[in-house]
Design goal:
Layout lengths: L3 H18 L3 H4 L8 E6 L9 E6 L5 E6 L4 E2 L3 E8 L6 E7 L1 H13 L5 E6 L3 E5 L11 E4 L5 H22 L2
Antiparallel strand pairs: 1-4, 1-7, 2-3, 5-6, 6-9, 7-8
């Protein structure tokens, strides 16, 4: 295999194996294994204690929001998630429904922090701050709808991963 054609075949074989072995994360991981994280943080006043940070929300025209480091709601409180139509022009939103504990927490947060923003962080194949909706009213039904700074495909990927996480969490607590 020391001939020029033999070395070429060896190089070609190594290259072919490398190309076939290189897949995107979505291709490597079956859809039922994909996971997403969704974290809600509250807007707060900046301080020097290290408990707050400023995060950029919205990629086109970033808005800096000062938030508490610790999430006040996360995927552990979710019951369902879905992508919904936001308007007749093809806009989309993510609708999450919280379980009983999450519903009570959401209601308390929307009463106590009216006029502030939630900063919503999503992690799927990438991690970014996808929304900063203003809290304008009490939400007692446990359903929260927000328009993410994400394409419909990204929103569907986030929701698919959330459904997998919700399913896995429910399996853990089922007797």
């Amino acid at each position: 295999m020391n001939t020029p054609s033999g070395r070429f075949n060896l190089i070609l074989t190594i290259f072919a194996c490398a190309v076939v072995g290189c897949k995107t994360p979505e291709a490597k991981e079956p859809k039922e294994k994909q996971a997403s994280i969704l974290r809600f943080h509250l807007e707060t006043n900046p301080d020097d204690t290290g408990r707050t940070l400023q995060v950029p929300v919205y990629r086109a025209q970033p808005m800096l929001v000062t938030i508490g480091r610790d999430a006040v709601l996360d995927e552990g409180f979710l019951k369902t998630a879905e992508v919904v139509d936001a308007d007749e022009h093809g806009g989309h939103a993510i609708k999450v429904t919280f379980d009983d504990a999450g519903t009570r927490r959401l209601e308390a947060l929307t009463i106590e922090h009216r006029g502030q923003h939630f900063a919503i962080n999503a992690s799927w194949t990438e991690t970014r701050w996808v929304a900063a909706p203003l809290i304008t009213k009490r939400i007692a039904n446990g359903e929260y709808v927000f328009t993410p700074d994400a394409t419909r495909e990204e929103a569907e990927r986030i929701v698919a991963g959330l459904k997998n996480v919700i399913k896995k969490l429910n399996e853990r607590y089922t007797l």
